Structure formats: structure tokens, C-alpha cells
Amino acid sequence: MKKVKEFLHKKDINISAKLYFVDAMGAMAQGLFATLLMGTILKTLGQYTGLLFLIQAASFATSATGAVLGLSVAFALKAPPLVLYSASVVGLIGYDLGITYITAAGAEKVLAAGPAGSFLTAIVACEIGKLVYKQTKIDILVTPVTVILAGFGVAKLICGPIAWVMAELGNFINTATVLQPVLMGIIISAIVGIILTLPISSAAICAMIGISGIAGGAAAAGCCAQMVGFAVISFKENKWGGLVAQGLGTSMLQMGNIVKNPRIWIPATAASMITGPLASAVFKLECTGVSAGMGTCGLVGPLGIFSATSEKDAMFWIGLLLVCFLLPAILSLIFSEILRKIGWIKENDMKLEL
Q1: What's the burial of 136, exposed, middle or buried (CB within 10 Å: 0-12/13-18/19+)?
Q2: Entry pTM
Q3: Where are the alpha helices (DSSP H) in 100-180?
Q4: Where are the alpha helices (DSSP H) in 50-113?
Q5: pLDDT tens digits along 111-163
């Protein structure tokens, strides 16, 4: 057993939940941002400006998603060069393989495993690839073949079930939100917003389950509430630098402070439980996939809502401003001041080292 541990350590294989589900998923989220999300943004800009080259660029960005996800995961796992490059093929395989899904109406629909397939397939293939890397004199052949075939084998086993589970989960969430927009709006907004602030990728999770429609709008509202909320209520401690870093960057910066005093999480989370149902039940804001889990990071969440919502009347614009920016700031401030007065939040509890 000792020799096995030493061999794994030598190969830089560290079986760790943090490595796989925090570091690798975070890297995957960046891969999604650089491909699928940027493709969506460029396509939207192209459609509204009439610039054909933006739509063409968007098509290339989107088509590279699976390969880039494989590379992202391999990079997070510190895979050696040959394993890293081969992981691009594995990511593409895991992204595209899936099942023929029978819808409720009885129609056949081909479903791919998508980001979840790329993620899990790349993890397994990369770790197997590390085992054989530089173990033979013909490593230039052995390592890529091992990684690609291992990835293909794993993908054939898991991508069908993954595609089915993600489709069912996404259908349940999207349908339940249509039937119960208030209750589901509260639940989705709070949960996805919390995931955004945790060292887990809310964008990746939203993409995996295929969240869309008003369920996606509620998710986007929750993420915006966390980012705008923390940016505003910590302004006393962090000034303009903190406002920008959290409001346009990530509320994950507060994770260390949350561990010290979990009560600082209450204002933004409470605000999300109000803005979520407003987004889903009142303003009918819609959002899809990665954008739903990005919040105000680079204004991706609001842009995603703009892209996905078909009806852009006066109520849409009022809802977009209220749900994504104004209400998260106002409500979080009110809740935080109450908690400061009763002593649950103290000075410098949200101080960041910027």
C-alpha cells in the first residue's frame, strides 16, 4: 500500500474532493466562459448589430466548448503536456456523447451529456493518463492513445446516464418553476446564489442541468443578489475596490469572512429570496445555462437575461434593473443594518485584503 501511495504521489495523482469538485469545476467554469458563454454573447451582439463576423466567431467559440472543457479540467489537475493535449479530445467525446431521449410527448430527442460529461470523463482519463506518462520509451504514442481510449470507454459508460439525469433534473426544475414560480423562485434563487459564493462553480452547475426559462431567471437573480449585496454592504470596509471586485468579480472573495462569521451571509441571501420570485413570478425574466450562474460577473447574468427573454417591454427593463441591481443593493443594506444594530455583524467582519 505504501508503494502504491508513493507511486501515485510521484505521478501527482491526489484523490481529493477539493481538487475535483472545487479546483477542476472552477477551471471548467472558466472554460465555459471562454467558449459557450462568449459564443452566446457574441451571437447576441451579432444579431442585434447585424455584424455577420460576430455570429461566425460565436459559432467557432461554441463548437470548441467540449475540447476546451477537457483542457480546463486537465490544467486544474496539473496534467503533463501529452495528457493535457489529449484531454481536449476526451472533453469533446464526453461533451457530445449521450442518448436518444423520449420526451413527454413521445418524440425522440438526441441529448448529449454536455459539460457534465466532459467534466467527469476528463477527470478519469487524465488520472489514467498520468499513470502511464513517461513509463515507456514510446510515450509519444502510449500516453495519447491511453488517454483517448480511456476517455472514450468512460464516456460510453457514463454519458448516456448523465444525459438522462441532467435532462430529467433540468426538466423538473424548469417545469416546477412554471407551476410554482413563487416557491421555486425562492428556492432556486437562494440555492444557486449560495453556490455562487461557495468555492463551487454555479455557472458550471447551471450549464450541466440545462436550467432555462424563468427558472434560469430566478437563478440569475440569486447570483446577482449575492454579488451586488456583498459589494454594497461591505463598502464601509472595502470602499470602491471592494465594490468593483465583488460586484463585477465574485462574492466568493467573502468566503473566508463567512467562515469566521456566517451571519454576514444573511443579508444577501435574504435579498435573493425576495428578488428570485420577483424575477420568476412577476417580471417573467428568463435566462439559460451558464449565464444563469454568473450573476453580475462581467454583467454576464443581466446580458443573459437580455438575450433569453423574448418580451422586452417596459416591464422587462424595470424588472431587469430592480432584480439585478437596485433591489439586491437596497434590501441587503436594510438587512445588514438590522444585523449590525443587534450585534450579529461587527465592524471589519467583511474586510477584504485587496
Answers
A1: exposed
A2: 0.76
A3: 114-132, 139-179
A4: 52-63, 65-76, 81-96
A5: 888 888 999 999 999 999 999 999 999 999 999 999 999 999 999 999 999 88
Contact 94/120 with Cβ under 8 angstroms?
Answer: yes
Q: Cα–Cα distances in Å, from 150 out to 90, 91, 123, 154? A: 9, 12, 11, 6
Answer left, alpha or beta for residue 78, where phi above 0 means left and psi between -120 and 50 means alpha.
Answer: left
Which residues face 101 on adjacent strands? 109
- 177 and 117 in contact (C-beta within 8 Å)? no
Residue 150, C-alpha cell as written in the block: 480511456
Cβ–Cβ < 8 Å for 120, 155: no
Phi and psi torsions of 14, nearest 5°: -120, 100
- Half-sphere CA count of 13, side-chain side, radius 13 A: 18
The helix (H) or strand (E) run that includes residue 110 is strand 108-112
- Using CA atoms, how far apart are residues 216 and 206, in angstroms rounded to an integer? 8
Please state, in angstroms and rounded to a whole number, the distance separating the CA atoms of residues 296 and 167: 27
Do 190 and 152 touch, CB atoms closer than 8 A? no
Indicate the SS3 state at residue 108.
strand
Amino acid at 19: L
- Per-residue pLDDT tens over the stretch 310-354: 888 999 999 999 999 999 999 999 999 999 999 999 989 999 876
